[in-house]
Amino acid sequence: MLHPVLLVAIGGALGSMARYGLSALVIRQVNPVHFPWGTFSVNILGCLFAGIFLVISEQFPALNQEARLFIVTGLLGGFTTFSAFGIETLSLIRRGELLIAASYASLSVIVGVCAMWLAYSVIKALLHA
C-alpha cells in the first residue's frame, strides 16, 4: 500500500502527461487560432471520466480510499486544466476578445456538465441493464 501523497503524485503525473499529449494532439489537428481547443477538449474529456468514476464509486462503495485518491485527486486532478482555463479566459478578456472569452467559459462549463451527465447516465444504465 502506497502512501496517499505518492498515490496522488503518481496519478497527477500520469494525468498531466495525458493532458499534455491530448492537448498537443488537438492543437495539431485543429490549429486553434482564437479558441483554446486543446484545453477545452481536455476539460470535457475530464468531465466525462469524472462522470464514469462517479457511477463506479456509487456502484462499488467498497472502492478503497487509495483508488479514489489515485484516480480523482491524482489522475483527474492532473488531467483537467481549469487553472489553464482561467488563464486563457483572462488572456482573451485582456485582448478584448470578450465574445470568444464568454463563449469559451460558457461552453466549457455547459458542455462539461452535460458530458458528465451523459457519462453518468449511460454507465449507470449499462450497469443496471
What characteristic shape results from the CA principal axes? globular
Low-pLDDT stretches are: none
Tell me the span between the first and last alpha carbons.
34 Å
Provide mean pLDDT, rounded: 91
What Rg do the Cα atoms give? 16 Å
Major sheet, described briefly?
A: none
Series of H and E elements: HHHHH
How much strand content do the residues show?
Answer: under 5%
Task: Summarize the helices and strands and which ones pair or pack.
Blueprint: H1 4-30, H2 37-59, H3 65-79, H4 82-94, H5 98-128
Q: Can you put this structure into words, describing what you see?
A:
By secondary structure, this protein is mainly α. The protein has one domain (1-128). It has helices at residues 4-30, 37-59, 65-79, 82-94, 98-128. The longest helix has 31 residues, at 98-128. The protein is globular. It is a multi-pass membrane protein. This is Fluoride-specific ion channel FluC. Na(+) binds at residues 77, 80.
Task: Provide a short characterization of the protein structure.
It catalyses: fluoride(in) = fluoride(out). The protein has five helices and no strands.
